[in-house]
Amino acid sequence: MPRYAQIVMGPAGSGKSTYCATMIQHFESLNRSVQVVNLDPAAEHFDYPVMADIRELIQVEDVMEDQSLRFGPNGGLVFCMEYFANNFDWLEEALGHVEDDYILFDCPGQIELYTHLPVMRQLVEQLQQWEFRVCGVFLVDSQFMVESFKFISGVMAALSAMVSLEIPQINIMTKMDLLSPKAKKEIEKYLDPDMYSMMEDNSDTIRSKKFKKLTEAICELVRRFKTSLFQIGSEESAQTLSCWFDL
Ligand SMILES: Nc1nc2c(ncn2[C@@H]2O[C@H](COP(=O)(O)OP(=O)(O)OP(=O)(O)O)[C@@H](O)[C@H]2O)c(=O)[nH]1
Ligand SMILES: [Mg+2]
């Protein structure tokens, strides 16, 4: 029997740990079991029991205190994640060999982990070798997305993770309860958006022709990306993307 994993990603403070804690409650109410692995070596606390915690392997604080390394918080985190990637046997032992497991990986918020560093992809490949079916869950704070240009930026971050990991990915807007009444009224537009008409709505904001051209080029890039995803056969990811863009 395969095992299942969600890689829970997103910028700092987007709600990853809250999502994991909420999913545990949700699974419990369905009488199903789900386990969480904390992969944030700088985590201070979380509201869920963990089956494994990367801090047992390495902690950012220890790396920063090591005078020979001279890392700050971000460099320290990258060092920890690279150390983790070189020690996947620790994870293998922590996961054990329980069939039919469902595991959430609560990841750190440094966006570079999902854009150009190889560690998350290495993790995905390793999990797949251990016969996990892996999907990505990318969280973005909805408060930063209810304006067209911020929305494009959030979508690009999610897209980077999709391109980098090449796994089915669900993109989630979090903290909807904190939206202003006005933003709540407008949210439908962002759940099923038409990027080109959004640009028209904001023509006042786009003062520079060059900026408008750049925005159009980004929309076109996403449209082409969708096509190329179909070509390489990753249809599930392309369908997720189409939930964000009415292309
Ligand atoms: N109101 C509200 N607050 C939320 C929601 N999701 C998360 N929060 C709050 O947002 C803050 C950050 O949430 P976390 O779950 O710690 O975010 P994170 O992505 O794990 O953060 P890092 O691990 O530091 O990157 C906490 O104070 C949460 O209580 C939500 O849906 N609604
Ligand atoms: Mg967290």
TrEMBL record:
Record carries keyword GTP-binding: yes
InterPro entries given in the database record: Gpn (IPR004130), Gpn3 (IPR030228), P-loop_NTPase (IPR027417)
Domain of life: Eukaryota
A GO MF term: GTPase activity
UniProt keyword annotations, A-Z: GTP-binding, Hydrolase, Nucleotide-binding
Pfam families: ATP_bind_1
Stated family: Belongs to the GPN-loop GTPase family.
Functional note: Small GTPase required for proper localization of RNA polymerase II (RNAPII). May act at an RNAP assembly step prior to nuclear import. Small GTPase required for proper nuclear import of RNA polymerase II and III (RNAPII and RNAPIII). May act at an RNAP assembly step prior to nuclear import.
PANTHER family per UniProt: GPN-LOOP GTPASE 3, XPA-BINDING PROTEIN 1-RELATED
Name of the molecule in the record: GPN-loop GTPase 3
